[in-house]
Amino acid sequence: MADKGDNNVERMDNENIKPDKMFTLKKWNAVAMWSWDVECDTCAICRVQVMDACLRCQAESKRDFYGKQDCVVVWGECNHSFHYCCMSLWVKQNNRCPLCQQEWSIQRMGK
Amino acid sequence: MSTPARRRLMRDFKRLQEDPPTGVSGAPTDNNIMIWNAVIFGPHDTPFEDGTFKLTIEFTEEYPNKPPTVRFVSHMFHPNVYADGGICLDILQNRWSPTYDVSAILTSIQSLLSDPNPNSPANSMAAQLYKENRREYEKRVKACVEQSFID
């Protein structure tokens, strides 16, 4: 009885010592995140992403000569960005940035 | 027909449902997205507490470049609310910004209930009591809280 018990213990110890791999890497999926290189990626006036056409242009499905929607982004000196269409309507009545109330002056335009 | 103002209001409604601010609610009327009904619950620790104040919001096709007309339907006793329910609030007039949406409008009005501005009164009696006789002011406000359950 005693011998049998000792053997059992010994066998179990041997199994534990065996350098078993804990896991094998079978598949590796790399994930990348990206966002547009702008401070605010949504136009705060129409609430559409600045890189997409504004609500007005979407409604009118206005297109330029190349058949692409021609709705550019405008950045102010304050670094806030909006759709040019949305902003040009707003500055007609109040020449201030709708987000920070600073005097609005265009820093750059484009996509 | 879907216009930019209507599309913007659809977005406002979606945002209001997905991220509802506490103590306010609103929805367009059944057949006209340009007219909304809203409710503002009286903020805690103010005499307006427990009140359910109903409002209407009317938008024009110039929204969001022009603010909507917001009016209390429930009877109000507040220094900045006119007898006809009209609201004297800078962001609904000269301080309007096209970045505001329905959610921002309703939360601004809610905070106006907590912090009246007695220096630009729309209801001079309410403004005077607010400044000089706070107990009487609170009594009059509590009366319109009770009234708000009925109307």
TrEMBL record, chain A:
It is an enzyme of class 2 (transferase). Pfam families: zf-rbx1. It comes from the Eukaryota. One of its GO terms (biological process) is proteasome-mediated ubiquitin-dependent protein catabolic process. GO terms for cellular component: Cul5-RING ubiquitin ligase complex; cytosol; nucleus. It is found in: Cytoplasm; Nucleus. InterPro entries: RING-box_E3_Ubiquitin_Ligase, Znf_RING, Znf_RING/FYVE/PHD, Znf_RING_H2. Pathway: Protein modification; protein ubiquitination. GO terms for molecular function: NEDD8 ligase activity; ubiquitin protein ligase activity; zinc ion binding. Keywords: Acetylation, Cytoplasm, Metal-binding, Nucleus, Transferase, Ubl conjugation pathway, Zinc, Zinc-finger. It catalyses: S-ubiquitinyl-[E2 ubiquitin-conjugating enzyme]-L-cysteine + [acceptor protein]-L-lysine = [E2 ubiquitin-conjugating enzyme]-L-cysteine + N(6)-ubiquitinyl-[acceptor protein]-L-lysine; S-[NEDD8-protein]-yl-[E2 NEDD8-conjugating enzyme]-L-cysteine + [cullin]-L-lysine = [E2 NEDD8-conjugating enzyme]-L-cysteine + N(6)-[NEDD8-protein]-yl-[cullin]-L-lysine. The keyword Transport does not apply. Its EC number is 2.3.2.27, 2.3.2.32. The keyword Membrane does not apply. Residues 54-101 form the RING-type domain. Belongs to the RING-box family. Catalytic component of multiple cullin-5-RING E3 ubiquitin-protein ligase complexes (ECS complexes, also named CRL5 complexes) composed of CUL5, Elongin BC (ELOB and ELOC), RNF7/RBX2 and a variable SOCS box domain-containing protein as substrate-specific recognition component. Also interacts (with lower preference) with CUL1, CUL2, CUL3, CUL4A and CUL4B; additional evidence is however required to confirm this result in vivo. Interacts with UBE2F. Interacts with CSNK2B, the interaction is not affected by phosphorylation by CK2. PANTHER family: RING BOX (PTHR11210). This is RING-box protein 2. It comes from Pyrocoelia pectoralis. The lineage of its organism: Eukaryota, Metazoa, Ecdysozoa, Arthropoda, Hexapoda.
Automatic annotation (TrEMBL), chain B:
Its EC number is 2.3.2.23. One of its GO terms (molecular function) is ATP binding. It is an enzyme of class 2 (transferase). The keyword Glycoprotein does not apply. GO terms for biological process: DNA repair; proteasome-mediated ubiquitin-dependent protein catabolic process; protein polyubiquitination. SUPFAM superfamilies: UBC-like. GO terms for cellular component: HULC complex. InterPro entries: Ub_conjugating_enzyme, UBC, UBQ-conjugating_AS, UBQ-conjugating_enzyme/RWD. The active site is at C88. Residues 4-150 form the UBC core domain. It comes from the Eukaryota. Keywords: ATP-binding, Nucleotide-binding, Transferase, Ubl conjugation pathway. Belongs to the ubiquitin-conjugating enzyme family. This is E2 ubiquitin-conjugating enzyme. It comes from Tribolium castaneum (Red flour beetle). The gene is AUGUSTUS-3.0.2_11188.
